[in-house]
Amino acid sequence: MSSKIQAVRGTQDMVGEEAARFDQVIETFTRVRKLYGFRPVQVPVFEFTGVFARSLGETTDVVSKEMYTFEDRGGESLTLRPEFTAGIARAYISNGWQQHAPMKLAAWGPAFRYERPQKGRFRQFHQLDAEILGSGEPAADVEIIALAQHLLDELGLQGKTVLNLNTLGDPETRAAWQAALIAHFSAHRDALSAESRERLEKNPLRILDSKDAADKALVADAPRIDAYMSAEAGAWFDAVRKGLDAAGIAYQRNEALVRGLDYYRHTTFEFITDHLGAQGTVLGGGRYDGLMEALGGPHTPCVGWAAGIERLAMLIEAPAVDTVEAVIVPVGEAAETAALALIERLRRSGVAADMAFKGNMKKRMAKASASGAMYALILGDDELSEGKVTVRNLIEGKQATAPLDAIGQIPLSLLWGLSLGHPKEPGTSYIGQLLTEYPGNK
């Protein structure tokens, strides 16, 4: 280990534009999920290991190779969450939230997987998560996809992502299709990759996900689910597609899009991009009607999705740089003390403000100009004695004086306009009258 302290591999530090992109994704998600009536939910960042082993499946790569599992001092096996859904399902069962069903819940935060770091993939990463718990109608599938599409649109990703859609049918359909796939791939077992031969024994649907060239040739000739679809499952998928059409949401059918675990049913979907190299999926989800039962709870139909915040942040345009509206430039000890009260008054009134603390007047004004602020509020001994403040418009390069009491009570743009009309002696009486009449002060 190097003597220089470093971040753990697969983690990242963010500041500046990178942090602003991250925040932009979260802020947009929060705004959009409120439009759809999704309430925030918080669950622990670690759970008993069994929660993830039972929900993700003992044979999956996540459980067998990627989870951060440890034994605590009490001898309990705990695991840092590799995703949100299992923890939310556990909370639904252990807290008796069934009485509130259907529930529309949204969360975001860190998740952890021990995998090879690469562009858009980290060992500590962050996800957005949306779930509808206790709703067994195709309309819920449409709504959860509409929420995802709306989010991506609000992030400015029109044209950068494509919605892939498929169905896994009901249990009857899935069982029949899986049997046909096993027969097909077993007949070509020797031609399969080593990974797919292992999947054939443990998780045969996952062979359809294979990136191996030889596997892809066999997948192309594999049985299609539509040939095994029950009438009920077909009607469900038709209802989802009609709902998406009605909502104006474009999609393409991808018959190879699957989820390997038995508790997944009906709709499965992913939003794919070709702007991130190999890491093409930015948001994915589906219906998982059997998960609650797998965790020991009651039958509860559910549908949801998760999205990688880092990947979305890489796709969006750089957000506008945050700037303050005003910078206070105090000159002298008395002014510096008075400026502390002044800046607090500004911020409490909703004005983003900063203060130039160090250096001479020239350096402080240079800092004010570099901040991107519209106004510098200059406060010295003369201004204090007269109960005034010098307001300098940093864009126009002009300045005027205004009553100190007006700061934080009248919008700076309005105050500036009034003061500019009287650069030598502002209309104090007029501004004083405005202080009592301005609607924001009533």
TrEMBL record:
Q: Is Cytoplasm one of the keywords? A: yes
Q: Where in the cell is it found?
A: Cytoplasm
Cellular component annotations (GO), alphabetically ordered: cytoplasm
**Which EC number(s) does the record attach to this protein?**
6.1.1.21
Where does the chain bind L-histidine? 83-85, 113, 127, 131, 259, 263-264
The main enzyme category here is ligase
Keyword presence, GTP-binding:
no
Could you tell me which residue ranges the Aminoacyl-transfer RNA synthetases class-II family profile domain spans?
Answer: 1-330
Q: Which UniProt keywords apply?
A: Aminoacyl-tRNA synthetase, ATP-binding, Cytoplasm, Ligase, Nucleotide-binding, Protein biosynthesis
> Where would you say this protein principally sits, based on its record?
cytoplasm
Matching entries from InterPro entries are given as:
aa-tRNA-synth_II, aa-tRNA-synth_II/BPL/LPL, Anticodon-bd, Anticodon-bd_dom_sf, His-tRNA-ligase, HisRS-like_core, HisRS/HisZ
CDD domains on file: HisRS-like_core
**Which biological process annotations from GO are given for this protein?**
histidyl-tRNA aminoacylation
Q: Which reaction does it catalyse?
A: tRNA(His) + L-histidine + ATP = L-histidyl-tRNA(His) + AMP + diphosphate + H(+)
- Which GO MF term does the entry hold, naming one? ATP binding
| A Pfam family of this chain | tRNA-synt_His
* Record family assignment: Belongs to the class-II aminoacyl-tRNA synthetase family.
Relate the assembly described in the record.
Homodimer.
Q: What name does UniProt use for this protein?
A: Histidine--tRNA ligase
Which organism was this protein described from?
Sphingosinicella microcystinivorans
Q: Provide the taxonomic classification.
A: Bacteria, Pseudomonadati, Pseudomonadota, Alphaproteobacteria, Sphingomonadales
| Name of the gene | hisS
